[in-house]
Amino acid sequence: MNLFFVVLIPFLGAGLAAWVSRFGRLQSAWMAGGVTLVALIALTPSLPAPFLGETLVQRIPWIPALGLDLVLRLDGLGLLFALMVLGMGLLVILYARYYLAERDCMGRFYGYLLLFMGSMLGIVLSENLILLLMFWELTSLSSFLLISYWQHREDARTGARMALAVTGLGGLAMLGGFVLLGEMVGSYDLSVVLANGELIRSDPLYTPMLVLILLGAFTKSAQFPFHFWLPHAMAAPTPVSAYLHSATLVKAGVFLLARLFPVLSGTSQWSILVIGAGLATLLIGAYFALFKHDIKGLLAYSTISHLGLITLLFGIGTPLAAVAGVFHIINHATFKASLFMAAGIIDHECGTRDMRRINGLWRYMPYTGTLAMVAAAAMAGVPLFNGFLSKEMFFGETVTFSANHTWDWLLPAAVVVAGIFAVAYSLRFIHDVFFNGDPIDLPKTPHEPPRWMKVPVEILVAICLLVGILPAFTVAPLLYVAATGVLQTAPPDYDLAIWHGVNAALIMSVIALIGGILIYAGRRPLFNLATKLEGLLDARAVFDGLLKGLLALAGAVTRILDTGSLQRMLLVFILSALTLGTVGFLGGGAPLTGDRDLLPADAVSLLVTIALIIVALWTVVLHRRRLTALIVMGALGLLVSLIFVKFSAPDLALTQLSVEVVTIVLLLLALYFLPQYSPAESSWPRRVRDIGVACLAGGGAAALTWSVLTRPYESIADYFLENSVPGGGGANVVNVILVDFRGFDTLGEISVLALAGLGIYAMLKDLRLPGPTCDARGRPWNWDMHPVIMAALTRLLLPLALLVSAFIFLRGHNLPGGGFIAGLITAIALIMQYLANGVEWTHVRMTSNLHPVIGAGLLIGLLTGLASLVFGYPFLTSAFTHVHWPVIGDFELASAIAFDLGVYLVVVGATLLILVHLGLMHHASHPGEQEPNHA
Amino acid sequence: MLEMLLSVLIVVGALFTFIGSLGLARLGDFYTRLHGPTKATTLGVGALLIASVLYFSTRGEGLSLHEILVTLFLFITAPVSAHLLAKAALHLRVRSIAPPPPEAEDPLADTRVRAGD
After folding, report:
1. Of A582, A779, A844, B86, which alpha carbon lies 20 to 30 A from A565's?
2. pLDDT, tens digit, 9 for 90 and up, residues A126-181
3. CA–CA gap between residue A188 and residue A452 (Å, rounded)
4. Which residues are paired to A461 by β-bridges?
5. For residues A157 and A89, what is the distance between their CA atoms, to the nearest angstrom?
6. How far is Cα A260 from Cα A54, in angstroms, rounded to an integer?
7. Are A932 and B83 in contact (CB < 8 Å)?
8. Are residues B80 and A932, on separate chains, in Cβ contact within 8 Å?
9. How many CA atoms lie within 13 A of A765 on its CB side?
10. What Rg value do the Cα atoms of chain A yield, rounded?
11. Contact of B77 with A828, CB cutoff 8 Å
């Protein structure tokens, strides 16, 4: 199960890292580093497996019915990426500790970084496609947070939004692709998918599936035409760029290409789409990189170009090309991260990133300059550096691939052009920054950065060199297992030597090097040309235009649908319901009255029904006198609870009674702030229309009820009645349904209740409304706000009411009652204290902080549910036993009672929270009045 | 014998409840009407509750004492509601047959005026 810890630890650590920042600025850096180390240690037990040729799969069933399990896998590819994510993470954490300024919030930064790290680990270790997609979306979200880390900067916000929009859209497309893929093979598990390549490639839906998945991969990996978000993401702090755009986020796309390589590749659609996108990206990225004046912009476009290179390699589709692709993933991660870090150091020390101003830094920071030169040489593909090896493999593969085609010179020529540009922009990065005269008007005088800021760069540069000079002793084993993981079989023979003799690849490398130097030498006219051409291919403008159009469309639709008049919306709603109902009913052709025998009408039901109708009409007539109408509505509620008693639903009757009381108190408190009489607002024709609509709607509902009730009715009630005692251990079926059969529903409902309570609290907090000082006829309020008789006797009532509440609560499982009703009774008893004695008096004696009560209730409910998981039963299974207590007698102990306690606490907390804060507002509207009895 | 006793209690309870309701409907003004329901809540409900205790306790299922709780609640709430109603009526100067007592003096009248300024 250690893989689960590897993924989970960064998520847990994110919270920790954010939390410890309150104890000092650097604590979160230490914490983040520690968390990453722990995750690395958790990974170590599994390290040998891929080298022994095994694929580790660890599984926790989640929703087996949907074929969705929490299942992780570790093979060579996953291992390579997990090591890159964690290792690069450590270096970036160290680097960022020195990079971030005094005013930047460290906790937030490291929290986001760890969130991102966890999501990325999830992607590379997922075995299930849907799980992979979830982590995929999480990387989109967490990278949004990271890119927009400097929230005060507009470019950071727009860049982050653009990245989220583009990668999010790609993720949606990918979901479609994954579903198609899963349906083709009948499983979402990668092992099954990877074993069924033939089946998938011959499926008629192969092409749409491929396009959808590639959309996801290409948006993430910034492939043309979705490349434009990446340069704008450079508004992020440089450590973020170093992490996201070297080893992680953008590599997720090529990771997916590698992951599904054995399944998807080998068709002409694959070759056309992937080679096309890769080649276009390679060329466009290399071209733009040369002409960017911003150091990070140059690196961003070069990243795009290198991603294109990797994509192109996977597109070629031969096993050897895939090996080269994996190799270049490793190499690009090392040299690009070190270059980003070097760029960050330069930016940090110079205060600007404009290469037209940063010149001749060699004199100020020769050490950083050396490091940057090594990394840039690797990027350019100079021999003895790691970039050279993979680039030569790349050149060789393009030649082999094109050998049998008619236009066999085209692809090699194009990649050589890209190579030339790569050499040119690498040269520019070094020459423009470190030589080329003196710095022009820098905000700061540059000097070498702190010792430890250079350490991550040194490590990465050392890797570049070691891999470049001694590939067989360093990267070879890891590359071998990673390639095995990609191909799902042993890779073909390849040679990592630096010198293969004079062959096509070497000649291409030499042309690229010489051509690059020549281009850079003649850069002035090229720059002028580029300035003229700039703006011709602005993908951002297209994106912005699309976004604007979409927003305008959404605005137009909203304006049509939402006119801002509640009455009109209700009218539309009711009329549509009526129309649909009528059409459905007339179309069905069934008779209104069913074939069930009618029961004889008894006097009580008839009387109560008539009373109900009268009271309901009375409410309508009285609705302008709000207080009176409220009292009448209370009577209506009591009548309804009598009906429940009549139809032997004592639980409902009890609930109705207590809810009625709370509602009336709530409305009274709220009505205090409203005028006591509503003016007549609508004209007569309108009233007639409304009465007509109301009658139609009521008649429709009555007809519907009639036709349902006159038909024989088979419900699932019998199941509940039969299984209530054996399955839930309670004779009160209503309560057993609430806490056991549909306990998950109840958990959801109390969460909603808690949220509603908190929401109302948030709205009422600090809200000050002026209350009226006299009633509608100008009579002042009575001076005696808390009459003595009521105050004294209400205190006497409290223990009695609590006793009743406890009684109702305890018997709830077998007799009418339960946590919900008991909670309402307790709430009413406590509210009575507020009403009778005043807020201040009560707050001296009882805490006003109700959030812990709500929280405790939710927690108890959740823990009860989880407890059954511990014993190996499904969530919220209840257990019960009978114990014999002296004096009291036989007593049933059910775990459901703990759940009911959770319900009770949430109900008490939320109800009190709402009512007390309404009352406090009331209190605050009379600041001058003291409480005569107790103040 | 028990049945006789129960019947008497129920009839007495019903009678006083009826008298109370009649009083509520027929008496002259608000203050006297307030007087009516007290009959129903004390003697009326009291007799019915005693009948209930007797009936459920003699059925062989043990002593039934829930009714005591009901009585307690009634004894506590009935005076409070009556007092509040009367107080509200006095404050609003509801019409009365007998001349109403002089209005209770507002001890905070001065402070209120000051706060209002």
Report:
1. A582
2. 999 999 999 999 999 999 999 999 989 898 998 999 999 999 999 999 999 999 99
3. 45
4. none
5. 24
6. 18
7. no
8. no
9. 9
10. 36
11. no
Asked if A291 contacts A428 with a C-beta cutoff of 8 angstroms, the reply is no
- Enumerate the β-bridge partners of residue A893: A881
**Residue B100: which domain range?**
2-116
Q: Is the pLDDT of residue A930 over 50?
A: no
Over residues A806-856, the pLDDT tens digits come to 988 888 877 888 889 999 999 999 988 888 888 888 888 888 788 999 999
Largest pairwise CA distance in chain B: 73
CA distance A403 to A413: 13
Residue A91: both structure tokens together = 């270096």
Cross-strand partners of A664 = none
A269, A210 contact by CB (below 8 A): yes
Q: Tokens at residue A915, please?
A: 């009512």
Nearest-Å Rg of the Cα atoms of chain B is 21
| Location of structure tokens 């990446």 | A230
Question: Residues with Cβ < 8 Å from A294, sequence gap 6 or more?
Answer: A234, A353, A354, A355
Q: What are the start-end ranges of the H helices in chain B?
A: 2-26, 30-39, 45-57, 66-91, 109-116
Chain segment A868-906, per-residue pLDDT in tens: 877 777 777 777 776 666 666 666 677 778 888 999 999
Query: Nearest C-alpha of chain A: how many angstroms from B98?
Result: 22
Backbone phi, psi, residue A890, to 5°:
-70, 130
Q: What share of chain A is helix, strand, coil (3-state, %, to 5)?
A: 75, 5, 25
Comparing CA positions, the residue from B103, B91, B86, B112 lying closest to residue B29 is B86
* Cα atoms found within 13 Å of the Cα of residue A653, Cβ hemisphere only: 12
Nearest to A787 among B73, B84, B114 (CB): B84
- A520 vs A877 pLDDT, higher one: A520
Cβ of B91 within 8 Å of Cβ of A779? The answer is: yes
Distance CA A129, CA A920 (A): 53
Q: Provide the CA A326 distance to its chain's centre, in angstroms.
A: 30
> Smallest Cβ distance to B91: which of A782, A794, A928?
A782
Residue whose tokens read 């992680």: A248
Band the pLDDT of A926: cuts 50, 70, 90. low
CA nearest A345: which of A460, A230, A441? A460
Mean pLDDT of A314-327: 91
Asked if residue A10 has a cis previous peptide bond (ω within 30° of 0), the answer is: no
Closest CA to A167 of A216, A237, A210, A133: A216
Q: Tokens 């993924």 label which residue?
A: A7
**Residue A70 three-state SS:** strand
Q: Which of A144, A346, A335 has its CA nearest to residue A242?
A: A335
Q: Using 50, 70 and 90 to split pLDDT, how confident is the model at B114? A: very low
Selected for mutation to probe chain A from B61, B65, B80 (highest A CB count within 10 Å) is B80
Q: Select from B76, B105, B114 the residue whose CB has the most chain A CBs within 10 Å, as the one to mutate to test that interface.
A: B76
pTM metric for this prediction: 0.70
In terms of Cα–Cα distance, which of A490, A543, A333, A504 is closest to A408? A504
DSSP A670-727: HHTTS-SBPPP-S-HHHHHHHHHHHHHHHHHHHHHHHHHHTS----THHHHHHHIIII
Integer angstrom CA distances of residue A375 from A334, A340, A389, A460, A722: 8, 10, 14, 8, 74
Number of domains in chain B: 1
Choice between A232 and B105, residue whose per-residue pLDDT is larger: A232
Tokens encoding A769: 């409304």
Whole-number Å distance between alpha carbons of A570 and A561: 12
Residue type, A888: I
> What would the DSSP string read from start to end of A33-61?
HHHHHHHHHHHGGGTHHHHTT--EEEEEE
